[in-house]
Specification:
By secondary structure, the protein is α/β, with parallel strands linked by helices. The chain has seven helices and twelve strands. The structure holds manganese (II) ion.
Length: 271
Amino acid sequence: MKKRKVELVVISDIHLGTYGCHAKELSNYLSTIKPKTLVLNGDIIDIWQFRKSYFPKAHLQVIKKIITMASKGTKVYYITGNHDEALRKFSDTFMGNFSLLDKLVLDLDGKKTWIFHGDVFDASVQHSKWIAKLGGFGYDYLILINRFINWCLHKMGKDSYSFSKKIKASVKKAVKFINDFETTATDLAIDKKYDYVICGHIHEPKIKEVENKFGKTTYLNSGDWIENLSCLEYNNKRWKLFKYQESTISNIENEEEQLFEMEHLISSIQL
Ligand SMILES: [Mn+2]
């Protein structure tokens, strides 16, 4: 298969090592691209929620694909997030094409581009329980139970249903949190004269131009690989929000894997 050349790809919030992670779909996507630069913008390996017993092949496959990319010439920047902050003590490590960082500034065709995960705003943005939930075990189980229900719905020929998306949309606080996050990021970016500010963290993919009385900037969020299956691509001076085709996502494709996940759910409930 001929791979699509892309100048820059930004991916965040993969959460490898959790039930919610769509590693197989991400793996499929990674097989189709050949980026010059790949930025992994935080929460890639979920060290917070890491269970020794849960790291399926598909999750390992994602890591392998990224290492292969780096060995074939892709410049890989791994920016740490709150779920992989254990890696922060190794920040500013450079090995060949691979760099481990807290934040990154790139020059994209003369535009100043500021990239960081975004958890740094958790203290300044009004405290929200929603964001704490994104990091909790409860959220991971909610996703897993949701998948099981969707599997049943599919068998009955019905459409899938997303609990957490519904919760997120209906809870005013969650909406306010997202707005506050974006405002905080863009105010700072305008103040620092960045043309683009790129975050992850809040699992809300977006590209929007923002203007305040001091100037303007473009806010970009790469989303996540739990629910939105999204990332950012930059090519020929243009940004695109990539979304993995909904129709190609089967919740749990492989019978064997599905059994594996269900056994896990049952054994963890028994605990
Ligand atoms: Mn995060």
